[in-house]
Every structure is written in structure tokens, then in C-alpha cells.
Design goal:
binds zinc ion, Pept_M16_N, globular, Cytochrome Bc1 Complex, Chain A, domain 1, nine-stranded mixed β-sheet, alpha+beta, PreP_C, about 950 residues
Amino acid sequence: MTIMDSLPAAPRVGETLGRYTVERVEPLPEMQGTLVLLRHELGARHAHVIRADDNSAFGVTFPTVPQDSTGVAHILEHVVLMGSQRFPVPDPFFSMLPRSLNTFMNAMTASDWTTYPFSTRNEKDFFNLLAVYLDATFFPLMRYESFRQDGHRFEFATPDDPTTPLKLQGVVYNEMKGAMASPGSVMWRAFGKALYPDLTYANNSGGAPEEIPNLTYEGLRAFHAAHYHPSNAFFYTYGQLPLARILDAIENHVMAQFAPQTLDVSIPDQPPFDAPRHESAVYPGTDVERGAQVLVGWKLGHSSDPDLNLRWSVLSDVLLGNPAAPLTRPLIESGLGSALADGSGYRDNFREGAFAAGLKGLPAGKAAEVEALVLRTLEEIAAQGIEPELIESSLHQFEIAQKEVSNSGYPYALGVMFRLLGPWMQGGDPVTGLRLDAQLGRLRADLAQGAVFEPMLKGLLANPHRVTLEVTPDPALAERAEADEAALVERLSASFTDEDRARIVADSLRLKELQGQEADRSVLPTLGLDDIPTAAPAVTYHTEQPGRARVARAAQPTGGLTYLDVQLRLPALPDDLLDALPLYTFAVTRSGAAGQDYVSLARRIEAVTGGVSAAVGVGTPPDDLNAVRLAVTFSGKALARNAPALVEVLRDLINAPEFTRDRLEQLLKQRLAGLKASVVQAGNAYAERLAAAQLNATGAVQERFSGLTALATLKATVEGEGGLDDLLERFGRLRDLIRTAEPLLALTATPDDLNLDLTPLTDLFSGDAPVGRPAPALPKRAPQARTTDVPVSYNAVAFPTVPYTHPDSPALLVLSRVLRSEYLLPELREKGGAYGGAASFDPREGVFAMSSYRDPHVTRTYQVFKDARTFLNGDLGERELTEAILSASKILDPLTSPDTAGRRRIYGDHAGYTQDLEQTYKARLLAVTLDDLRRVMDTYLTEGRATYGVVTGRDPNSDDLAALGLTFDVQAI
Ligand SMILES: [Zn+2]
């Protein structure tokens, strides 16, 4: 982040900027910014945040309140991104990804709004993307073929043969079939419907697969005309670019083309229930032992009320925020289920908010038991009172959240948008989402007067607007859904004449023809290679070596937070410890330490830190892919005043962790439930790991740490005889090993807070470090398939390549970008109906992979992977090359922030990935040619080197894979 000498001045209230009027100007002292709220003559609202951050952001959000579950808002989100008046290419959005240096681009449909946000550090890029976003949302072409491609369509199994069976197709149709296979999604949709049965939340805004075919093309267009209008738009901009210039662009591009319109999108209140209700829902799954969830939820007051919103946020954090929290702990310790149910906590994304708690990892039929447990526990808490220390700890967490400026996970620039969007869209005051001082002040004053939260709990318990919702797996559902789909096709097509059938064939051919057409992407704005910043921002730190530990200190504008990491590089370790290591890092911060049980330790962590974590990392040096390095890193953050206490917490976690059998059993069950759920969400990553595990030691370790092998190991430990005792014994050996490892500490803080005493940590390490490095056995080389309850497939192929310093590495990185945007996305998503397709190359791992996401095909997709060479030998030009290099450069220059910039440099340098090496890599990247791409493809991506992995719902060998020469080893997950 560069801090400019002077920020643009804020306009005055009442001032007009074109047809905009400044309605409010509010200082945002916590984030050193200013909020300007404007209103356009046509009714459009605009919030602009002036802040010294070179990552500028934009978002336009429309309240969208669907009246059915045809997925109209979601399908519209897809279709508006498929060509607009000024940019009539089939996929301006995907085409812009590689023409831009954006740090975020996306579109999202929630239950009552749709938003289109982006961010970028480049000014030219900002206005390029602004033009594309404005044109897409306000002037989309909404072609009939786009509706058919991404919405729904009939297609014959052989598209040009009307005697073959009819099928339903469509990107959203397939996407939602995948989404509704996940218990979390099913719970979330069912919860909105159960608690607000008369409102828009009762509908599946993403689209219920069985109702999507009811959406008509005319219905889609009408929904757009009504909702995507300036009068219904909430604009957001952030950064240090001049506001007048941004507003001018919006006025000229959008506002000037519209006449006034009014639309009532207001959501009424849900009529209250007289008595609590019980509801249920099912998802396709076979885990009847542990696959059910029960959630008990209440409707609360308006979430636009800032005091109510803050108080419920705090209360929810007090009750559920950590393993020791007074509601979490009895729920988990009951042994009924393994983890909190999806949807637990306070939810302000409904117009009237909700609070819910429950358990997952249950057998079916536990609704009454979980309900009784939740109610009894809340009654006890309300009667006994909440300890003031717990409330203080929670308020301290809000203080940290207010001060922290982080781009980790999500650009800060857009985090600000989502914070203000909540109250703003609900008709409340957007400022209250960004500035909690007034609400916090009133809360503290009320707390000084007497009980605040106990009366809230009593009110909750007396509130009859309550739902107990049970979500259970139904092993027959997948089959039934298929039969239902066939029946639906049958019903919808019963009256088809030969003419109708001929039209379906013609439509399919027309769609195929359009997809095959070469689009003229030169109408889209673009950046050039000279827009790529050549010099990386300098990050300085200094190092010292007290004893065996190395310490690096980096000064950063952290807003008063201190970040501390302790990386411990491990020596050779026996095979059984390798499998235990990720379980160790998962359990160690959630157990006890130094004489404190897990409850006391969790309270201590909550009271003095903003969170601690432990993770295991796998890496290799820049010039050798076979020299596996393993490290465990303990990390934490705290307000500077609590930094010494953070040091003590980390010391205890590293030096004196204490595990008990009961707690470990709880934790492992939680992890098992989490991993199982993630298979449906991230099946492509699991498939890639299955394939990469066969290639080299790093891949083999990754698979055992975070692949399906890790899931199988965990399952065996939890369910097998003596598994826990054996693991406890291995944990003891790991603890001893970790205490002898090679330590590197990285401290990030403001210059004032940089001299923190770290000797309590550095003193732990003395004597000689053990030597050697892990050398795990590779699994056998054969195509691997894992089956589970999914109606789609995740296909992957992987190839071993070269280390970071090899001159071919940058060309492989560029190749992955070319294949992704020019080949795999069109072939797999547009033509194949998969939700996604990708090529990936991590220069530090040296593995090149291609994969598909939520894919209806297996054989077809592997044929597409195989044909990549033919594509590459076709007519690729300089444009494709330039775009791929631009896109690759983003991977080399990730968006950092004060919390990450120092650590990234420190650990990069330590691992040998120095700034010099990074500059060499970038110089090579800028010089990559088309011939290089073809050469590295022929050298490294050959069939003889390929390994295969697939996560799927059925035996892939039943497909006709023989033509591809593939036979999969099949195992159920
Ligand atoms: Zn979608």
C-alpha cells in the first residue's frame, strides 16, 4: 500500500456533482477515511469511501426479490455477463480477467440482492473494468442463446439426433444440482423458508433444479428491466481516485440513457408465528449415521437497527464464538453431534434478523433432543447470568475487527462495501455498518447500568417465532431426483410435435455454432505488458539471531495490531507421524496447554488475542522439487497492548500442549464432518491432489495432509479400535520433535511496537537441531477415482514439470493461463455444461494440472484435456499471449496488506525465493513467446507423464473410457 501525500478532498454536503447531490459526509476515524453519500436525480444511491489505499474498488448492487424458485436472479447474473451492447462478445467478464490486473472480480446472488464488485491497483484498469461492469449490468444483450446456455434448455443426448433421449441442460441448472447436494446449502435455503415462509426468503434465489425449467426467456428480460435500473441501484466506490471523474463516467455511460422509474422491492415483515414450528429437509447422502443436522432458530427484530445488530452480534459471539463459549461447550460436550450446525449464530442478512444454534454430525431423529438441549442451555445461561469477562473478551474482538486492515482472503476495499451494504440495503443507515462507536458507547453505558444480554435471552426464549429444522441425508434421493428429472422431461415434452423436435435440434446446432464462433474481443479495453509493474514494492525488515532461533521484525502500518508467526522447520520424520501432523496442528490450538484445560485456554486466547492458529506447510527449495521441506507454523495476532500475552500463549502452545482423549475425540469428529462437507465444495482440488500425489514427494505429502487420503486416515482413526490412544501417543512424539525444530520468528507491527520481547519463545530452542528431511513413499501410479454422493464429477489430470529456477517455469505458468481462458473455459463450461474448468501451475510446486468443476461429463472432459495440444497448435496470436502474461503476472504480485507484506518477504527469503529470484522470474515471464508455450507443452504435458484423479458420483469405468486408454482404480470415499 502506498500512502499518498494528499488524498482528494471530500465534497461538501449539499454540493452537486452533475446530477448527483452530496447528501452526507462522514469521517471514518477508525479506518482513516471519509464516507460520502450521494443521490442521483434518477434515484441511484452512491457511497464513496476516500481512503489512502492504492487498491481501488467498485460495486453495483441491485435489490432483487424473486417471487419463485426458478432462479431468475441467479440466471440473470449469469446472462448479463454474456455480452453487452458496447461489448458484444460471448463472455466479456471472463475475457476481461486476463486483460486486467484486477485484484478481485466477481458477481454474486444473495437471497435478496445481486452484486457486481471488482477491485484493482491500476487506474487505467479501474476505468476499463468500470465500463465493462456498467455496460454488462445496464445494457446486457441477454441473447436467447445465452439464456439457453446458462439457464436451461432441452437437448437430445446426441444433439443432432431427435430419436435419442431428451435431456435438460444449462450451466445454472447443473450448478444448482451440485449446490443442492451440499447439506450446508440445503440447510441455509430451508432455514430462510422455515423462518420467513411468506417472504422472498422462502424461495431458492439460486434456483431449485425442478423449478428452473419454469423460467421463460420473457420472464428473465422483464426481471432485468424492473430491477437493473438506476432507481434500484446502490453504487459503491473506494480508494483515492477522483470522485468527479468516476461519477462522470457513470453519468455518461448509464444515467444519460435512462428515464425515471419506480419499483417497489421492499420486503414486508414476516407475520409472527403463534407457536414454534418444526420443519425438515433432505439432501442426497448416504451417511445416515452422522449426516443429519438440527438447527433451532428464532426471528429477531430489524437488522437495520444498529443497536440491535451490534448487541446480537456480541451476544452471538459470547454464546458461540469459541470452543469454551457457554452455548458451544454444552452442545459439543453432550456428545450428541460433532460440531455446530451450519447456520448457527446471528444472521443479519435477512430483513428481520435471526439467531440460531444446533448440531451436526447426528443420526436422524434427534430434533427433539437437540431442541431441548439448546433451550435448556439458554435458560441456564439466562438464569445464571453471563460472566462480565466473556462480554469484555467479545467486545475486544470487535475492537480488533474495527482496527484491522487486511486483504487476506478478501480485499479490504470490498470488505468495507459489504459492511455498509447490510444496513444500507435494509433501509438503515450505512454509516452504522462502518462506525460502531455510537452503538458501542450506548452498549457500554447500558452494561454499566445492569444486565443487557440476559433480558435479551429471556425475550428470545419467550419468542414463539421459532423453528426447529432437521436436515437429513436421503440415500434414495439422488436416484429419485434423476427419476423426477426424467418424469419432468417426459411431462414437458409429452406434446412435442416433430416440428418442436426439429426446433430443438436446430437450437442446439445454433448454440454450438455460436459457441464455435471466433469472437472479436478487440472491442474490450485492455492493459498492455508495459502496465505490469516491474519493481516489486520494497518491504524491509531486520533480523537477529538470539541462540538457535532466527528473528525477523518488519515495521508496517497495522493499525495497532501485532502479528507474530513462529515457523518450525521439521527434520526427517517417520511415516506414522506424517499422517498425524495435520491432526496435531488442527488440535493443538483447540486443546489445553501449560496446566490449563481447553476451556480455560480458549478463554485466555479470546481475551488477549485476535486468534491463534497452527498450520503445516509443505515446500521445496527453488531449484529442487524433490527436497521436501515441512514446517509447522504457529501464528497469532493481538492488539499491541496484549502482544506480550500473545507471546506467552504461543510459547505454551508450542512447549506445553496438553491433549485429552475426550477433547481429541470431539475435535476429530468435527474435523471429519468438515472434511466430508468440503468434498462436494472443492471436489476439483481433491481430484487434483489425487493425481499430483503420484508425481512427486510434495504431491504425496499434500495428499496425505489435505487430500482424500487424509480423510480416510481420519475416518479410520475416529472409527477404528484404539485409534485415539495410538494418536495420543504419536502426538507426544510430535510435540517433542517440534520443540527441537529449526525456528524462524516473524514479527509485524507498527514501528512503536516492534521491540517486543520475544525471548520467552526464542529461549525454547537450544542445542543442536536434528537433521534429515521427510521422504514419503509415492502411491502407485494408476488413474484414481473416488466416489461419493454427488450428481456431478470433478476431473483432473496432472503432469510433473520443473522447479522455480528452471527457465521453462514462466512459460508453463503462461501456458496454464492460456489454456484456462482460451480453451478449457469455453470447452468445458460453455460447451460441456460444467460449472468451471481450469488449468493451474504453481511455480513453487512444479505440478501442472487441468481440472473441471461440477461437471456432467467424465469421458468428454478427458478428451478435452487430451486435445489441448491440438488447440495450442491452432491459430493463437499475440493478443492471447499478452493476456496470458498479464494474468500470470498477477500471480507473481498478489495483493498484500500490512498484515501480510512483511511475512511474505521474510518467509520467501528464508526459503530461498528472494526478491532477486522473483525479478528474474518476472523478466523471463515478460519474454515468453508462443513457441515457448508449444515447446513446454510438447516437453512436459505428454501422455506418458500424465496422472489422473476424479471425484465423482458413479464408477467412471462405466463410461466409455477405453478409447482414451484409461481404467480407474475406484474406491468409495
Ligand atoms: Zn452461478
